[in-house]
Design brief:
The protein folds into 2 domains: 35 residues, no CATH class; 62 residues. Helix 3 runs antiparallel to helix 4. It is built from 4 helices and 2 strands, in the order αββααα. Helices cover 61% and strands 5% of the residues. It has a two-stranded antiparallel ribbon with strand order 1-2. It is elongated and about 65 Å long. By secondary structure, it is mostly helical.
Length: 120
């Protein structure tokens, strides 16, 4: 008889088995779940899915940092120019992110292809 440690959070949730495969049955007739090559798609999905939100968060953080640099620049023209440049590039990044996301959503709405969801 063997016991396996199963965390309570894992035991309380219902696992769909999307990212794991079933291997041959063990001695007592039970199936053992192990990671398979399908796990790579799940890994990529989990990494790519929050990426637009993280990029937007970084851009907002850079805008805040540029504002702090602008207020602390004083009368130094180089520091003011650097802060404005930082602000400009962060806003351009946010605009590009929004345009790309809008283009993907429009493609998805017109064609029906799920281009905003990762899958192989």
């Amino acid at each position: 008889m063997s016991f396996q440690f199963v965390p309570q959070a894992y035991a309380a949730t219902k696992w769909t088995g999307e990212c794991i495969g079933i291997v041959a049955s063990q001695g007592s007739g039970g199936n053992m779940e192990v990671a398979t090559i399908q796990g790579i798609t799940c890994l990529l999905k989990n990494v790519l899915q929050p990426l637009p939100a993280l990029l937007a968060l970084v851009a907002v953080g850079i805008i805040i940092m540029a504002g702090i640099r602008l207020t602390t620049a004083g009368s130094d023209p180089k520091a003011v120019a650097s802060a404005w440049s930082m602000f400009t590039w962060a806003v351009i990044g946010l605009i590009l992110l929004a345009v790309v996301w809008l283009a993907l959503v429009l493609i998805e709405n017109f064609t029906g292809a799920k281009v905003t969801q990762f899958g192989i």
